[in-house]
Write a structure and sequence with these properties.
alpha+beta; three-stranded antiparallel beta sheet; 2 helices; globular
């Protein structure tokens, strides 16, 4: 299992997870229930804690990275 992507936006991570899964890449969303108004600061120390997308099968990592990169380029907002 490898960390693929992290972002302060749960919506962005959720959308990317859906895109990966629709392309047959199993993944897991971590930290989705963190208190985003503080991004984990003060709750778990000084480092912010953001939602993360983890790829279940390491063999899917490069393809997942390509899909996420291409998808982010087409998403509105920061990119």
């Amino acid at each position: 299992m490898k960390l693929l992507y992290s972002d302060k936006s749960l919506g962005r991570c959720d959308a990317l997870k859906a895109v990966l899964e629709s392309n047959g890449i199993p993944c897991w969303l971590k930290n989705e229930y963190m208190p985003f108004n503080t991004a984990g600061v003060g709750v778990f120390g000084l480092d912010p804690v953001f939602p993360e997308i983890w790829i279940v099968d390491d063999d899917d990592f490069e393809e997942a990275r390509k899909i996420v990169t291409e998808t982010i380029e087409t998403m509105p907002g920061e990119g």
